[in-house]
Write a structure and sequence with these properties.
Length: 170
């Protein structure tokens, strides 16, 4: 209740401030640029009026250019001073950030507002993967190991074992 009253009061003050700024703008424009009365002026008088207006425009453009140059110089100087300050301080250390655990529902609630009741099951969209038996890929040899002892002995046997292990992988 208090929060809504504060927001309403701030909104009213903001509207009043906008109206005051608009009135000040109108007063300034009325003082600086009075309305032109061109009715009943001869061609020579209109040309003189145009020359005067062009002269005023030139003066304003020169002032604007000078002010822009000063602003650019000041911003460049501010950047240089900021760099010097950072160099004098030394290396900037970043603070350690804490990990915050937030659920997907809480994120959606904060984005969409508390009015929307949204629950999202992220696991429902995942693909299900079946485990494949690795034993089905390799044929099981039912032979007796004692039969191959003599064939596998020595360097030739080791070479055969190496070639047999290397063969299915390619």
């Amino acid at each position: 209740m208090l929060k809504s009253l504060m927001v309403a009061k701030a909104k009213e003050e903001l509207e009043q401030e906008i109206l005051v700024k608009e009135e000040e703008k109108q007063k300034y424009l009325a003082d600086r640029a009075p309305p032109l009365n061109t009715g009943g002026l001869s061609l020579a008088q209109l040309q003189d009026l145009c020359r005067e207006l062009h002269a005023k425009i030139d003066v304003v453009d020169e002032e604007r250019y000078d002010i822009e140059a000063k602003v650019m110089l000041n911003t460049r100087e501010i950047k240089d001073l900021n760099i010097k300050v950072l160099d004098l301080r030394g290396k900037f250390k970043r603070p350690n950030l804490r990990r915050v655990r937030v659920s997907a529902d809480a994120i959606l609630r904060s984005l969409l507002g508390s009015k929307h009741k949204v629950s999202m099951d992220l696991r429902a969209n995942l693909k299900s993967v079946k485990k494949e038996d690795t034993e089905k890929k390799r044929p099981v040899e039912d032979s007796d190991w004692r039969k191959n002892v003599e064939a596998m002995s020595g360097m030739e046997g080791r070479k055969k074992m190496f070639d047999a292990a290397k063969g299915p992988a390619q």
